[in-house]
User: What shape does this take?
Amino acid sequence: MKSIDRLVDNAVPRKPVPAVHETTGGYAQPRDRRDLVDAINQAFAEFELAYHNQFHKAFAADGSLALAKKYWLQSLQEFPAEVIRRAARHVVQTQEYLPTLAAMITACDNAPALFGLPNAEAAYREACLAPEPKAAHHWSHPAVYFAGRETGWFLLQSEPQSVAFPQFDYHYTQLCRRVLRGETLDAPIAPALPAQPVAPLTLEQNRARLQALRSKYEL
Assistant: This one.
C-alpha cells in the first residue's frame, strides 16, 4: 500500500491543525500532522485486511487510493489521531462493508464511547452516588473519579444539580479531551486495609469503658 507521506505537502499546507468546530465537542487540539498521517495509513491498512475484495475493487483505478487518503486526511484532521485509529477498528468490527467517509466521521463523533467514557450526565450521577471510600469504588472510567475529586465530593453531595453539574461537566470535559488524545489515566488507588483488623470490644469491656467515662465526667 502506498504511503501518503509524500503527498501531504500537496494535500494541505503544512501548518498546525486548527481547533475543532463546535459540532465535534471541541476536544481536538493543534497536533503533529505526522501522527494524523500515520493514523490514516493505519486505518486504510485495516480496511484492506478486513474488506480485501471490496477494498481492491473500490481502489482499482490508478491513483484512487492516494487521492482517497488525502481526502480522508483533510476531512478527519479535526479529530485526534487516536480517535481515528479507534474509530477505524470499531467500524471494522461492526460493519460488513467497506466504510464510507461519512461512517468514519460518525464513529469519530461517538469517540467517547470507544474509550469507555460515559456521557457527562451518567458520569455526574455516578460521581454523586459513589460510596465512600471513593477511591475504592469500581468506577466506569478513572476520568469520572478525577472529575468528581476536582469538583469536590462535598459540593457534589450538598449542592443542587443546577450548581454542581456545570462545575463537574467542566472538569470531566477537560479529562475526556486528554483521554481522546491518547493519555492514560491511572485508576485511583484504594486505601490500604489495616495490617491487623481490630477486634470488637466485648460486652464487659464496653461496660467498663462506659463506666470510666461516667466517672470522668461525673455523670
In short: The chain has two domains: 5-114, 120-180. Residues 5-114 form one domain.
